Amino acid sequence: MTITDTERPPTTPDGERVPLRSWLAVVTMAVGTFALVTVESLPVGLLPFIGGALDVSEGTAGLMVTVPGLVAAVTAPLLPVAIGRLDRRVALIGLITLMVLANGLSAAAPDFTVLLVARFLVGVSIGGFWALAAGLAVRLVPERSIPRAISVVFGGATAANVLGVPAGTLLGGVADWRVAFVAAAALGLLVLAALLVLLPPMPAREVVQLRTLPQQFRHPVVRAGVLSTFLLVGGHFAAFTFISPILQSTSGIGEGAIGPLLLGFGVAGIIGNFLAGAAAERNIRVTILSISVLLTVILAVFPFAGRSPVSGALLLLGWGLAFGGVPVSVQTWILKAAPESTEAATALNTSVYNLAIALGALLGGLVATNATINGVLTAGAVFTLLTSLAVWSARREERGAEQATPAPVGASGS
Fold it and tell me: Are residues 45 and 55 in contact, defined by beta-carbon separation less than 8 angstroms?
């Protein structure tokens, strides 16, 4: 099924204006992604407090981040299958409600086992919400505004990495780690209320079945888009996981300056997210290729050009600017290429995104252990460079398919 004009909100003749209520609903989903990504990473800065309170080591406490990440990777493709024809508004409301309850359970957890159960539930809500949100946001706006809507939704996730985690960490340090989870639950309640008021009924346009997930790989753009996500995200995390020792050993930046620089990286990522969204409205393929080339160049030259605090900081900001545009550009490419299977394609891409984070960090750890710390930059550059090949291969396949399609009867030259 394709998106018809009757499924789009009313627009003016220029085809770009969208009712304020629709944009407010898109913003609400962005705040939802902000809340969920914040909750996913919240324990990172609270490990010492939680470990001490529940009598577990910091290494064991790290499972609070690992568990929801792996659960989200599995949930993303399976939840659209499980909910069948359920109204997507009901599904989003249910997932946010689950997040609120999970954070309440986290705040009241008497021991680490209960806390891990709560984090498992968080993973379900993260994977499900991510799999549905971007595909639903595009149903609220006309076609020309799709990249902008996706930019807003993914901007919430980027903002969470910049503002959400530091704010939660600060709150947990000043008050108590349980207070941080209570605050996350309160934010979820606000999102829940906004969804109830702003989001219209959104009946399922497609029923996702297990067999439709691998079928997405038959589409050259979806296949290339998912592969691009894996290469760009995996390459990024292979290197970025070790950014702190890289900045210290290669650029000579003091430990005290790492935090502010990473904040700058995140702000640059937010800017890159919206710049890529605007560029994707004009040419999605060129946008992804430009991001791939820029990331490759930055990662490849960092060991040589980043040998001073100033040059290292500038390269880091450029890195953030480029990577900030990855989710919105690739997701826009996939959604525009496969409007008849938005949920299946988005779920697949979300799952691969989460897997790329885990496998990229694993690859970086192997390289850093068995080679040099700067070797992770080279490994990341190889991954991001391969993205360009994936994009070009999709274009060749599309052209081949176009040439193989017989001209319609009555066409010029028939």
Answer: no
204-244 pLDDT, tens digit each? 776 666 666 666 667 778 888 889 999 998 899 888 878 88
Q: How many CB atoms lie within 10 A of CB 338?
A: 17
Q: Over the Cα atoms of the chain, what is R_g? A: 22
Domains and CATH numbers, the chain: 18-205 (1.20.1250.20), 208-402 (1.20.1250.20)
CA atoms within 13 A on the CB side of 260: 6
Residue with the two structure tokens 């390269």 = 315
**Scanning the structure block, which residue is given the tokens 């993303």?**
76
Low-confidence ranges of the chain (pLDDT < 50): 1-14, 401-414
Q: Map residue 55 onto helix, strand or coil.
A: coil
Mean pLDDT value across the chain = 81
Spatial neighbors of 173 by CB under 8 A, at least 6 apart, are 45, 49
Cα gap 204→208, rounded to integer Å: 9
Q: What is the model's pLDDT at position 63?
A: 80
- Model confidence pTM above 0.90: no
Give the start-end residues of each E strand in 191-298: none
